[in-house]
Give the backbone structure.
Amino acid sequence: MGSPTFRDVTAALFAFCDGKPSPSFDQALHPMGYMVNNNCIPPMCNLLTSDDLHTVHVVLDALENILKSSPTTLLGGYACRTGSVNFHATLVTSFKGKENIESLLSHINEEIKEKAIFIVKGYWRSRQ
């Protein structure tokens, strides 16, 4: 199977953006785990630079759900609170997702900016 197309990724995003993390560690059966296992993170990180506000908002929601579904998160909170590594945050970072989310911290749309701030503080910034 090749890389997912833009159409495939956007369809998956809209299908899974309301996905809730499961307390199960069987990530392959959970919608967020399915997206991670099928290489949806790289194109999602690329979509963060889209000019379409709705797409960016949906991508942020989906990435937040993916970050929540990481086993570290399920064991005790955000990675920055536990000092543990959030595997999904590491994946998002490796595909420039963290960088793209940080670029949204000064976005003109207040909802996108607030969501980006929440995600960065929750998954990458340690407590002060």
About this structure: The chain has one domain: 6-123. The two ends are 44 Å apart (CA to CA). Confidence is low (pLDDT under 50) at residues 20-29, 73-82. DSSP finds nine helices and no strands in the chain.
